[in-house]
Amino acid sequence: MSNKVNNYDLAWYAKGDWKEGLQAQPDETVNKEEFIRQYAANPELWRKAFRFLASPEFPHLAAGKHVIDGENLFVNINEYITKNAEDIPCEGHIKYADIQFMISGEELMGLTPLSDTRNPTPYSEEKDVYFMEPGDMRYYLADTSLFFIFFPDDAHRPAVKVKDNASVKKAIVKVRIA
User: Are residues 176 and 70 in contact, defined by beta-carbon separation less than 8 angstroms?
Assistant: First the structure.
């Protein structure tokens, strides 16, 4: 694939074979063009990520970091109680894309373009994260039927309660971007 996304690429995305058998669907917010470019740049890494998410063992993993392909691909399994939006910082990443998938429970995912944020904190290279004040944050329901993919241009606020604070289990697959 070239750097430019065309109708063939979008048809490939829509067909969904790249999900490697994962039944969940990508949320409408996924930047299809950026995903197609990143997948084309490193298809084996993305295949491994989705094979992992489609595996029957995956939902039963304990909380913590699980390495799939060294520092190029790993997953953090998190269990926590959702919170009020104002209690959760808006975050961004530089080295990794996030595939965020709810194993159990539901939460709201806030999303805004990075260009609409302000006052970023210093970047932590060790944790590949920095925080900022969001502009016009939009919220989307995250449950076990969907997954989200956040790229460096996507400022996001995960772990927001839907109605009441609730216990959830989520996988955050970190895929090194090209």
Answer: no
Contacts 24+ apart (CB under 8 A), 5-10: 5/32, 5/33, 5/36, 5/37, 9/36, 10/36
Architecture of domain 7-176: Sandwich (2.60)
102 neighbors 166 (Cβ within 8 angstroms): no
By the 8 A CB rule, do 96 and 126 touch? no
Tokens of 41: 């740049």
The C-alpha atoms of residue 129 and residue 105 are separated, in whole angstroms, by 25
**pLDDT tens figures, 117-137:** 999 999 999 999 999 999 899
Residue spans of beta strands (DSSP E) within 24-116: 25-26, 64-69, 73-81, 90-92, 96-104, 107-113
DSSP summary character for residue 96: E
Distance of CA 10 to the CA centre of its chain: 20
Q: pLDDT digits over 48-81, tens only? A: 999 999 999 999 999 999 999 999 999 999 999 9
Terminal-to-terminal C-alpha distance of the chain: 14
Where do the domains of the chain lie? Answer: 7-176
Calpha distance 135→113 (Å, rounded): 8
